[in-house]
Design brief:
Elements (H helix, E strand, L loop, with lengths): L2 E4 L21 E5 L2 H5 L5 H20 L3 E5 L10 H12 L3 E5 L4 H8 L1 H5 L3 E4 L8 H8 L7 H12 L40 H13 L16 H14 L1 H7 L16 H6 L4 H13 L5 H25 L18 H4 L5 H13 L4 H15 L3 H11 L5 H12 L16 H7 L20 H12 L1 H4 L6 H9 L2 H16 L5
Parallel strand pairs: 1-2, 1-4, 2-3, 4-5
Length: about 500
């Protein structure tokens, strides 16, 4: 049976389930750069360059391996062409008897592909994505009957399943399952942060950069200084670079932020893992080996593994178990529009400017910048969940709907009522001061709360606490915050709320 195998832009690996038992002599592969997928949100220019270039390189690899690949490059003269139209053309042209693909990472596209058999007139087989450690069904089986779903318990199951950092007796290496409490050091310049891994653009990548600058010139970000890996071989080199130069210090400083360094000790591997250039389990195994060989301490290795084996797998399970209703959640009743400075970085708040500017330049910011700076501000300001979710999906090179939506809507915005996280990650400017040196260069004063030059995070934090008292006053993890709020003098509370109301009325001028 001659099959047409569809490979999507985040499925760039020969270990793909759609390729299992396929025959290069009879089966054909189709890949496509289509306008619908490239422009349904304001994707960062570097994200488009990464994916288009990686797709083109992967198609070349497949052809070298003996496959017939029908690759459609972006057509500026036919911008409305959809992925379905591309597949339909090749089904008819080749006389394919069926279409095979691996399940995609977005509910919107999954629903479309699930109906293709009707429009294409041939069977469409959607196979499970075996690159994940837990299947969708496995996660649902784990979640069934639980009143609350907590990542920590699921993470331990994944550790036991894979044997990663688990002793032969079934106990966690180092004596603890989670070393997060050891991973909260502020970075003051010592040890020096390593230079990021770089790959100079080749002819293929330079051609894609020109394409993006020509046809996506109004998209967020810049293509300047593009140095991402675009092949599996170079992504493996990026992994080795992280293991050698950054992983040993990653644990201590994974929550730190710096006014002078974009990358610190972070791996910057998520763009490669999420598009298929790196296998997540192999990445975790490499990190575990660094612990066993004495190359990196347990708090660094466990913290890194937890991001992939824990959070990455957990949010994917949440996404597929709760969609499409989950995307509409707004339990805190947020109504404000996303401030325009999220797209420009033009704000006097130093921490926000640095996080947004790094995102604009790099298509990347690490998890604390996302959660406790740009995310925290959106939470405190009461931004509509769909607007901040769309921003996160657009601006990061590693963002796909399955991973972005639960992280943003659930963890950042607490819009799901605590389904994903037990408490909102709300914080005043003191947290940012504790974990960074941004405050020393800021227009605002982190030690002030009610004055005109007071850090906006401070009064907005207490405004958030006050307006959501009915939501959180009985949350055992929030009790101390509400006791502190009640202890403050009435005139102090009034001044804090007045300052916050002024800020909320003038968000775009902060």
């Amino acid at each position: 049976m001659a099959s047409l195998i569809l490979i999507l832009g985040d499925q760039l690996t020969t270990d793909l389930s759609a390729l299992e038992n396929a025959n290069p002599d009879t089966d054909h592969i189709v890949m496509a750069e289509v306008h619908d997928e490239a422009s349904y949100t304001n994707h960062h220019k570097k994200k488009l360059v990464l994916l288009f270039s990686a797709m083109r390189h992967f198609a070349q690899q497949l052809e070298h391996d003996g496959w017939t690949v029908h690759y459609q490059r972006y057509h500026p003269d036919n911008p409305a062409q959809s992925l379905e139209a591309v597949v339909a053309h090749h089904v008819q042209d080749l006389g394919a008897e069926r279409v095979i693909t691996t399940e995609c990472g977005e509910w919107r596209l999954h629903e479309q592909i699930s109906q293709w058999h009707q429009s294409l007139g041939v069977p469409v087989e959607i196979r499970s994505d075996t690159r994940f450690i837990a299947s969708k069904q496995e996660f649902m089986d784990w979640a069934e009957g639980r009143k609350q779903l907590r990542m920590e318990f699921f993470y331990r199951e994944m550790r036991r399943k894979t044997g990663l950092l688990v002793t032969p007796e079934g106990e966690p290496e180092g004596g603890e399952w989670n070393f997060d409490a050891d991973n909260r050091r502020k970075w003051s310049g010592n040890p020096a942060a390593p230079s990021p891994f770089r790959v100079e653009p080749d002819d293929v990548t330079r051609e894609v950069i020109e394409l993006v600058e020509t046809h996506f010139k109004d998209h967020f970000g810049t293509t300047e200084d593009f140095h991402f890996a675009v092949t599996a071989e170079d992504a493996e080199q990026a992994l080795a670079h992280f293991m050698d130069f950054a992983l040993p210090c990653f644990g201590d400083f994974q929550d730190a932020m710096s006014d002078d360094e974009d990358w610190l000790f972070h791996s910057i591997l998520s763009p490669y893992i999420n598009c298929g250039l790196l296998d997540p389990l192999s990445v975790c195994e490499a990190a575990a080996q660094a612990w066993y060989s004495g190359q990196a301490p347990i708090n660094a290795v466990e913290g890194f593994v937890r991001q992939i084996l824990g959070w990455r797998e957990f949010v994917r399970g949440i996404y597929w178990m709760t969609m499409p209703e989950y995307a509409q959640e707004n339990r805190l009743g947020n109504t404000r529009k996303l401030p325009w400075f999220y797209w420009t970085g033009d704000t006097k708040m130093r921490c926000m400017h640095r996080a947004i500017d790094a995102t604009r330049r790099n298509g990347y910011a690490h998890h604390i910048q996302r959660l406790m700076v740009t995310g925290n501000f959106a939470l405190l300001a009461g931004v509509k969940p769909e607007e901040i979710c769309d921003w996160y999906l657009a601006v990061y090179a590693d963002a796909y709907d399955w991973v972005e939506l639960p992280n943003t809507l659930g963890m950042v915005m607490h819009a799901d009522g605590g389904y994903l996280g037990s408490k909102p990650y709300a914080a005043s400017g003191k947290y940012i001061q504790r974990m960074s040196d941004h405050c020393r260069n800021c227009h605002y004063k982190v030690n002030k709360a009610t004055e005109d030059d007071a850090c906006p995070f401070n009064s907005l934090y207490w405004h958030f606490i006050n307006r959501h008292q009915a939501d959180f006053a009985n949350n055992p993890r929030m009790g101390m915050m509400y006791r502190n709020w009640e202890k403050q003098k009435p005139e102090r509370r009034k001044a804090l709320l007045k300052r916050a109301e002024f800020l909320l009325a003038n968000l775009d001028t902060i």
